[in-house]
Write a structure and sequence with these properties.
By secondary structure, this protein is mostly helical. It has one domain. 64% of the residues lie in helices and 0% in strands. The chain has 5 helices and no strands. The longest helix is centred in the last third of the chain and has 16 residues. It is globular, with a radius of gyration of 14 Å. 28% of the residues are buried.
Length: 103
């Protein structure tokens, strides 16, 4: 019997494990000490909200560059500046793409 493959990426927002993995990526790689969370008002679910947005973007065929742009815009809104250099956001966007596609 064949093992089922990853879920169709267009339905990724419907899979809690994909959203949870994205939330973990954001919490550990993008905002490990909570600077962005605190700059956005300190809400404990801020990473979950951004995870759902990014999963939705990638499910709708957004490119990695669009995810990078989104992360930069969130940093600027929360902090008034960017927090990470381009290559960090690029690495996060590439990992996000792999999470959504189950790779």
């Amino acid at each position: 019997m064949l093992e089922p493959g990853p879920p169709y990426h267009g339905r990724a927002p419907e899979h809690p494990e994909i959203v949870a993995r994205m939330r973990e990526l954001l919490a550990t790689e993008w905002d490990p000490v909570g600077v962005i969370r605190n700059g956005a008002g300190g809400a404990s679910d801020v990473h979950a909200e951004h995870a759902m947005v990014i999963v939705g973007m990638l499910a709708a065929a957004a490119r990695e560059t669009e995810v990078q742009r989104y992360l930069r815009q969130v940093e600027q809104q929360a902090l008034g500046r960017t927090l990470h250099p381009f290559d960090v956001r690029r690495r996060i966007a590439e990992t996000a793409w792999r999470i959504v596609r189950g790779l």
